Amino acid sequence: RYIFKPMRFFYLTILASLIALSGCTMHPPSASGFMETAEQGQNDEKVRVLTARAEKINFSLSGDEWNIPIALETTTATRSGFVSGWGILPSPYVTFGYADKYFGWRSWVSAIWLGITVGAICATGACFEDDGDDDSYSYDYSDDDDEVDLVELDSFLAAWTQLFSGGLSFIEQLPVGDFLRIGFEQYICRNFWLNWGTVGDQEDFGNVEVGVGAYMSFRVNNHRVSLDAHYGILDFNTKKPRLSLALTYSNVLVYESAS
After folding, report:
1. 107 SS3 class
2. Angle at which helices 7-20 and 146-163 pack, to 10 degrees?
3. What does the pLDDT look like over 196-243, one tens digit per residue?
4. CB burial string 111-140: b at 16+ within 10 A, e below
5. Is residue 157 helix, strand or coil?
6. Cβ of 90: how many Cβ atoms within 10 Å?
7. In whole angstroms, what is the distance from residue 132 CA to residue 120 CA?
8. CA torsion, points 24, 20, 106, 98, in degrees to nearest 10?
9. Residue among 172, 44, 165 at smallest CA distance from 115
10. What is the number of other CB atoms lying within 10 angstroms of the CB of residue 35?
């Protein structure tokens, strides 16, 4: 018999906070890399696309607050057009979506948040099959103060909501021969971060970002180089912009021929 035990969520929340120290925002991964994966997957082959991106981000447009995160991603595609993969941005994430040569949609979500969600579900006993017999996994739980349990659960749910980061985007692409691709993107996402050294005083742990992007990519054999730009606003406030410029490199690896 499995009994819900909210105290487990307290430990999961602490673990999530410690892991999250290594991660930060979850703005859109490379659109050109995603579309390259989908397009190559249409060619009777299963492919893996390795993508690396150096991005320069400015949060004020004043020219003096740039930072340069490095992103890495690996994605696979099938002939049906479905794309999936994972990467670091620099926080780890998983991504999936669908695309053809001209249009695509994709979503991405923090792997840390996803792992915490699965762990919380398993903490209730839902991940284990109950055969009705007494074993080392069965236990009784009682608490004379249910109000404390509710407080702990509420704290976990608040932390779980704060930790969420991910997004959704739509991509339109114009192919020009086999060499050139021009693309446009519209996205919405939630960012999450922790400020080193000031976590105790930090009040804002995330925001919603909406924006648009564009890219121009060039292919030579199995190599593609792309110039990307994104412009978004944070929390729907035009006085809180984010501008990013990126150089992206993708390499196509064929790992299995379709039958």
Report:
1. strand
2. 20
3. 554 455 556 678 899 999 999 999 888 999 999 999 998 888 888 888
4. bbbebbbebbeebebeeeeeeeeeeeeeee
5. helix
6. 14
7. 22
8. 140
9. 165
10. 32
Name the CA dihedral angle for 248, 36, 169, 66, rounded to a multiple of 10 degrees.
0
**CA-closest candidate to residue 222, choices 31, 39, 30, 28:** 39
d(CA 176, CA 190): 33
DSSP, res 64: S
Task: Please tell me the total number of residues recorded for the chain in this structure.
Answer: 259
Q: What is the pLDDT of residues 5-50, one digit of tens each?
A: 555 555 555 555 545 444 455 678 899 999 999 988 887 666 788 9
Report which DSSP code applies to 140.
-
